[in-house]
Structure formats: structure tokens, C-alpha cells
Fold:
Amino acid sequence: MRTYLDFEKSIAELEAKLADLRKIDEAADAISISEDLAALEKKAQDKLRDVYAKLSPWQKTQVARHPQRPHFSHYRRALIEDFTPFAGDRAFGEDAAIIGGLGRFRGRAVCVLGQEKGEDTETRLEHNFGMARPEGYRKAVRLTELADRFHVPVLAFVDTAGAYPGIEAEERGQAEAIARSTEAQLALRAPNIAVIIGEGGSGGAIAVAAANRVLMLEHAIYSVISPEGAASILWRDAGHAEEAAGSMKITAQDLARLKVIDRIIEEPLGGAHADPELMCRRVGDALEETLDELSALSPDECRRAREEKFLAIGRGL
Structure:
């Protein structure tokens, strides 16, 4: 069963009517309603196209958080072969919010980092809703340094509301761990690519997204703070989240204009959750093309180009 968002009510009504008509068409012996069915299907598609062509930043935020949106595990299964996960930070323990390891992407050896939110209550709790603790970021550093040693490209899939803000995370050095992970990404002498597949929230995202190329799904969001967090600070009321989202420049389209990201990956009509298999193929194609572009860089050129990219953000605005 598809979950419909608030702004999709008119689409839900049309698709409910479509489902009823299909049942009637299957049961009918003599009367054919195929023409009526085709007309209603076209109307539903046109309505869906119209709604998704005019999404507001807050509506894009809802799409980015859709419970059926494909998470890192979907992309890993679809794109990475022979995946061998690495566990633990060699200092405190394992953090399932960040999954990392080595594998093969379309014939290339790669290091993979992914923030996993989980798909149901059990797995969301297991992965802490994609909010990593210090040990998660230290695991990312361990894998990034391994990739640097063997000059293996790093692919990072970003999907988090932010780093875990709990007391125990702060006690174990959350800010320092995020800074070290960001530093490791920037210092890497192998190519790295980050893909914002859902939410890219605050330092929790940039810790694995300081890459040579930052790709972003069409309806994903990427920001220094969530709309609810910004509203709580500016208005002392999280109820102003929609207003905050409209002012924060968090959409892929805004960030491409600001040159914070490098490429927008088009989503299927109705969002990534409407056709996860197609979305995985499109992400794979974009990653392959980008890796081909970066493969010509020497180790020093790779690091220097990344440094120049981030230093240039905001110039001339």
C-alpha cells in the first residue's frame, strides 16, 4: 500500500477510483470500460505530474522523508556487488547508523559509506533513525583512511536528519568525531562522491559529504539545520517549519544555483518511492559517469580539486 502525503490527497482520490474501476473491468463479462479506465489513468498521471512540478520546499521536505523512500540499503543491494561490511571504530564500538565497507560498483573496487534510517520500527531503532554517534563517524574515518591507502574511490550515500544529539554522544566527543570525519573526506587522495538521497542534515551529513562531487536527488533536501530546528530558533515555535523551509534554500534546485551541489538526479514521477528500481539505476548511471570524470585526476590533483571546490562555495554571491 502506498502512503500518500497531505498534498497528494487529490491524487489518492483519483487512484482509489482507478482501483475500483479496475475491479469492475476485471469482473465485467460483456461491458467494457477500458476507455473510461484509460481516460482516468491519464487524468491521474497528469495530476501527479502537475503536483510534483510545483512542489514547495516544505513539500519536498515531506517527500525526502517519505517512509517508503528508498534508503541506503536499497542502493547498496542494487548497485554494490561483493559487499563486505566493516564494523566498529576500534575505539568504542559499532554504530549501525552508518554502514561502511568494501565492494564492487560496476566492476570497480570501491569503499562505500551509507547512512541508514531503517525501513520499519525494528530497523529504525536498530539504525537509530540514521543519526550517528561518534563511533559511526570514527568508523567512517577508518574506512576513508583505508581507501586513501589503496587509492580506492569512496561512494557516500547521505540520508540523516543530523548527528545523534544525546548526552552519551556528546560525552564521547561527537563534535570532534564529526570534524575528524570531515577532515578525512577533504584530505582523501582518491576520488569521492556523495549522493544526498533523502535528508542531508547539518554536520551529520557533511561529515561524509565533503566530496569531489556532491550529487543530489531531485526532491532531496540538504541544509545546516532542519526546518523544525530553524523555526524553533527563529520563532521559538517548530510550527513555523513550513515558513522556515521556504527561506532556507534547502532544495536541490536552490543548492545547484548556489553551486553547493554539482548535479541533480531526476526522480521518477511521484518521487523516488514511486519506482525504487528506476531510481537506483539512475543513481548508478550518475555515479558511473562521475567516476569516469574523476578517474583522470592524480592523487594530488584529486585532493586539490576538492579543496578548491569547497573554498569556492559562496564566492561571488
